[in-house]
Amino acid sequence: MSAIDEVQAVETSWTTGRVIEKSLPTPHTVRLRMHVEARLRHRPGQHYLVRLRAPDDYTAQRSYSIASDDDDPLVELLVERLPDGEVSEFLADVVEVGDELEMRGPIGRWFTWDVRTPALCLVGGTGVVPAVSMLRTARRLGRSDLLRVVAVGRDPGMLPYADELGRAGAQLAYTRVDTDTRPAGAPTAAEITPLLPGVDLAYVCGSARFAAYAESLLLDCGVSPQAIRVERFGPTG
Amino acid sequence: MPVTRGFVGRRRGQERRLPPGQYDTGGSWPVLTAEATPRIDTEKWSLTVDGLVERPTTWSWEEIHALPDSSYFGDIHCVTTWSKFDVSFRGVSVDELLAAAGPLPEAAFVLAHSSTGYTTNLPMSDVVDGKAWVVWDYGGKPLPREHGGPARLLVPHLYFWKSAKWVSRLELMAADRPGFWEQNGYHDRGDPWLEQRYQGD
User: For A133-173, what is each residue's pLDDT tens digit?
Assistant: First the structure.
């Protein structure tokens, strides 16, 4: 039994979240740490809905992955500020510490990790967020050995949580800059294959373009399609 | 609930066309799937209607194209809050498939299966009388693989997770059986106009 088994799937309803901390860790992201009223426990990989309400009762809602561990007193969300993003621009530009937002969660029971199954996360851009939650939870439960993370970004300044991921042992792959350990470029089969022995589940999270690349790469490395769980986001053509 | 400080929202004017909580995604069509996108050869493709039917029936790619053509032009709504207006799909009406297979009187629910193992459940009443299709053509072109090609289920009056991509089998059942997302916290029926997104809605 893992302590995460105590987190039961339950029906969710709307509640209020108060912004306790806000920061802009990279040029295109906003990090919000929220106190959530009547908060329910969550598993790493789940997400919350955030809903904004205008004076005429018009609403806009989006879902955002949770970065925090269930044990954290606050719920941490990291949101990519999309051009013309009705909700993300508001969260990045208008929201201040102390504001209250409508929230609902945790949502999702598929893209979650049980902190028992040996797993690989192949994540890109703000798709690193669920992997951060998985790493934090694994560390608390003393099961960091179960999780391997490959995080992909354009460059160190654009990859959210790059420092934390690096400290937690994740492999960081930058597509646009060379580092001491690897040339610029997307991760290759030669980099992924050594991470696969013993891995039973692969989590892919990122933009549709990233997810398509990551899925093909894992299939090329011999991962069974049934062992791949995918979370995609962002607009596509 | 109280107004969000400073929020006025920006999209207006399509309210009557947009179900509650949805926004118009315009020209884009977001891809949302939980699994790896399969590669399916139409030579090997087939669709089966079985379960509580008089004549379990399987169609090849060629055979299903010989059935009467049926189209949908209208809007689609995804539970992740995007809606897309004025899309056109072409394929065959589920009514046509059911007429061939002959549902037994006790058939009250359908479980749609995809070749990936994905499933979604629907009451029979949501797939009959011109409300559901199996489609292979989008906007006059073959349905792209990432959007469920070669063929997907189309049930546009419900949230789009009910429109199973890569559909391979419609299983008629007497009792409801939750599908993939329905077991994973989503609503059993998924009517966008009633905002039936998640369990408890």
Answer: 999 999 999 999 999 999 999 999 999 999 999 999 999 99
Nearest CB to B23: which of A60, A110, A230? A60
> From the list A86, A107, A212, which residue is nearest B9 (CB)?
A86
- CATH code for the part of the protein at A119-233: 3.40.50.80
Residues A3-107: name the CATH superfamily.
Translation factors (2.40.30.10)
Tens of pLDDT along B4-26? 998 988 766 656 788 988 888 88
**Residue B99: other Cβ atoms inside 10 A:** 11
Q: What pLDDT, on a 0 to 100 scale, did the predictor assign at position B12?
A: 60
**How close does chain A come to B199, measured CA to CA in Å?**
6
> In a mutagenesis test of the B interface, which of A7, A11, A22, A84 is the best target, namely the one with the most B β-carbons within 10 Å?
A11
pLDDT at B2: 87
Q: Do A60 and B185 touch (CB under 8 A)?
A: no
Yes or no: say if B64 and B92 are a contact pair by the CB < 8 Å rule: yes
- List the single residue in A225, A232, A237 with the smallest CB-CB distance to B28: A237
Question: What HEC string does chain B produce?
Answer: CCCCCCCCCCCCCCCCCCCCCCEECCCCCCCCCCCCCCCCCCCCCEEEEEECECCCEEEEHHHHHCCCCEEEEEEEECCCCEEEEEEEEEEEEHHHHHHHHCECCCCCEEEEEECCCCEEEEEHHHCCCCCCEEEEEECCEECCHHHCCCCEEECCCCCHHHCCCCEEEEEEECCCCCCHHHHCCECCCCCHHHCCCECCC
Domain boundaries of chain A, sorted by first residue = 3-107, 119-233
| CATH annotation of B40-194 | 3.90.420.10
pLDDT in tens, B85-133: 989 999 999 999 999 999 999 999 999 999 999 999 999 999 999 999 9
Nearest chain A CA: its distance from B4 CA (Å): 5
- Model ipTM over 0.85: no
Q: Is the pTM of this model over 0.80?
A: no
